[in-house]
Amino acid sequence: MSGTFTKSMARNIFFGGTVFFALLFLALTFDSLQTMPKRDNRQNLTPAVVAGKKVWEVNNCIGCHTLMGEGAYFAPELGNVYKRRGPEFIKAWIQSQPTGAPGRRQMPNFHLTDQQLNDLVEFLKYSSEINTANWPPNIEG
Amino acid sequence: MQYSSQSVAKPYFIAAIGLFTGQVLFGLIMGLQYVIGDFLFPAIPFNVARMVHTNLLIVWLLFGFMGAAYYMIPEEAETELYSPKLALLMFWVFLVAGAATILGYLLVPYATLAKFTGNDILETMGREFLEQPLLTKIGIVVVALVFLFNLTMTMLKGRKTSISIVLMLGLWGLAVFFLFSFYNPHNLVLDKYFWWWVVHLWVEGVWELILGALLAFVLIKVTGVDREVIEKWLYVIITLTLITGIIGTGHHYFWIGTPEYWQWWGSVFSALEPIPFFAMTVFAFNMVNRRRREHPNKAATLWALGTGVMSFLGAGVWGFLHTLAPVNYYTHGTQITAAHGHMAFYGAYAMVVITIISYAMPILRGRAANSENRQILEMWSFWLMTVAMVFITLFLTAAGILQVWLQRYSSTPISFMAAQDQLTIFYWLREGAGVMFLIGLLVYITSFFIGGETRAKSA
User: Fold this and answer.
1) pLDDT digits (tens, 9 = 90+) for A20-32
2) Which of A121, B77, B80, B235 is the Cys-Cys partner for A10 at CB 3.0 to 4.6 Å?
3) What's the farthest any 2 CA atoms get from each other in chain B?
4) Do A91 and A64 belong together in one domain?
């Protein structure tokens, strides 16, 4: 770096550049928030879905599974599990855990009530209907 | 040690290393659960082990950052800390809150923990990395605010260097963006959108300011290069970081229900994110080559150089590997992500915290540098841990490529669990590399205890 490029110039570029790109990010965020109603399936945010999201959260499902690709990578993607397995299979599967098969990955039994199971399935149905730009590449997640 | 109040950094550093050890042990448990699925089940299910693993990481890095700031700010401001007592009090508050939270994860079902810690009042739990109960989250905010108050007051009464301004900017940013962890809308897309304002704007934003400041501080000390030169570099690097990293958040907005133009914004800007890391590597080597003194602490210099290289590889190269939208379409949420996460966190944040500990701890213990023997042991631990992390990353990358092929790319995709069964060999190799990492960590800890003889005393 030559002597003409001083520390105060570098500092000014830092603050100017940061403010510019932070504002650009805020503008893009504003636009995203305007566009999201067309993609995020908010019209189906029923009380059951809201309750199901809470069931999902307080049992830390994200600690093993992914949801739209985010989470842990220990167990299958569940963003599209409603389409892959259907509601009855999901409920039966959750109730039958753990399998106890020796050496296999185990899912705890969370002792969910029928109401909680139904809510959770509603949440997974809602999630599967969000427009994710055709992700995942196939039904296996 | 130039100012006696810098000594409050010491318990922070000790706690950081202790929690780091816990993190690695839980990492090994999870690594084993990848191949022996029912290992420790139902005592420690995978989701609990993972929560402990990632939360310990965050907490020990925060301890490291806070210790670093308590050490650096008095020296940079050329004045004693505003209140050393407050700093020690906050240490105990944070340690007790952190330990209680981890014990809560381990001893109580998560749903029960949520019920008894106020999650019904404000639902914030059950989201990746932000699993902490509401009480803990509030505790983190309180500790952070008291910490920032203490350091800001110290800085206001003393010299305001660029390093301390950048460090404080990073730390204030850390606290401000954490506030988004309290926002958890029912709308899943909005939830995810703003969840990244904590996670991404931390690790690819404000934390990099902290990283740059720590590295610049140590480089000034060990190389004796003119502060003007180093601080100019620091500004250039963090400029590159933020102009790429802020819009680079878009690489998380490809497939979560956000507008598709993010595939362009995210791909283009995050493809530029390796540049600041490359600049950091060049910076570190340049400064060491232009050194004006031979600092006796060779180990700290090694960690500083290692931070540059490993953060470039882990965050820069492994980040670029899967950041372009057409690639990410196949790799999103696979072992490729895990590979990148491991090397990036180790290379950037674990290593920079160890760098400052390596530099400051001998001084906090009353000597400029450790004895030759200790430094040699510490350098062994550097190589063991760093090489182990390279192998962990390579094995996870191999697993990830195979996973993508089997489950997503092939014309006859197989199910998640069927694909996982095919990856077993790589998971075993990863666990082996993990054991090597633990050995490296134990060597590192040993280096604090062997041979009390020091350079200062023997001279």
Assistant:
1) 999 999 999 999 9
2) B235
3) 70
4) yes
Assess B54–A contact: CB distance below 8 Å, yes or no. Answer: no
Per DSSP, the three-state class of A123 is helix
Comparing CA positions, the residue from B451, B231, B246 lying closest to residue B362 is B451
pLDDT band at B50 (very low <50, low <70, confident <90, very high): very high
Question: Residue B35: how many CA atoms within 13 Å on its side-chain side?
Answer: 15
Measure in Å the smallest separation between the Cα of B361 and chain A Cα atoms: 30
Whether A50 and A72 map to the same domain: the answer is yes
Is B262 in contact with B334 (CB distance < 8 Å)? no
Phi, psi (degrees; rounded to nearest 5) at A67: -130, 115
Q: Does residue A33 surpass a pLDDT of 80? A: yes
Instruction: Render pLDDT for B325-343 as a digit per residue (tens, 0 to 9).
Output: 999 999 999 999 999 999 9
Minimal Cβ distance to B128: which of A62, A100, A132: A62
* Together in a domain, A54 and A107: yes
- Judge whether B339 and B393 are in contact, CB under 8 Å: yes
Q: What share of chain B has pLDDT > 70, as a percent?
A: 98
CB crowding B216-227: b at 16 or more within 10 Å, else e: bbbbbbbbebeb
Q: Is the pLDDT assigned to residue B286 strictly greater than 90?
A: yes
Average pLDDT over residues B41-57: 98
Hey, are the CB atoms on B247 and A28 less than 8 Å from each other?
Answer: yes
Which residues of chain A lie closer than 8 angstroms to B34, CB-CB? 74
Preferred mutation among B30, B124, B188 to probe A, highest tally of A CBs within 10 A: B188
The reply to whether residue A133 touches residue B334, judged by beta carbons under 8 angstroms, is no
Q: What is the mean pLDDT of chain A?
A: 96
Confidence at residue B239, expressed as pLDDT on a 0 to 100 scale: 98
Q: Which residues constitute the domain of residue A28? A: 7-37
Which residues of B fall within a CB distance of 8 Å from A21?
242-243, 246-247
Chain B partners within 8 Å of A33 (Cβ): 190
Whether A17 and A57 share a structural domain = no
- Residues 130-149 (B) with a CB less than 8 A from some CB of A: 131
In a domain, A133, yes or no: no
Of A7, A13, A69, Cβ closest to residue B332: A69
Q: How far away is chain B from the Cα of A87, in angstroms, using its nearest Cα?
A: 18
Mean pLDDT (whole number) for B431-457: 86
SS3 at position B239? helix
Closest chain B residue to A104, measured at CA: B37
pLDDT of residue A4: 87
Q: How far apart are CA A128 and CA B3, in angstroms?
A: 58
CA B274 to CA B244: how far, in whole Å? 9
When the pLDDT of each residue in chain B is averaged and rounded to a whole number, the result is 96
Point out which residues pair with A67 in neighbouring strands.
A70
- Mutate one of A38, A73, A106, A139 to test the B interface: name it (highest B CB count within 10 A): A73
Does pTM top 0.90 for this prediction?
A: yes
User: What is the amino acid identity at position A39?
Assistant: R
Fold annotation for B225-459? Cytochrome C Oxidase; Chain A (1.20.210)
ipTM: 0.97
The residue of A97, A105, A120, A132 whose CB has the most chain B CBs within 10 angstroms, and thus the best one to mutate to test that interface, is A105
The 10s digit of each residue's pLDDT in B345-390 is 999 999 999 999 999 999 999 999 999 999 999 999 999 999 999 9
Segment B53-63 shows an average pLDDT of 98
Q: Do B46 and A63 touch (CB under 8 A)?
A: yes
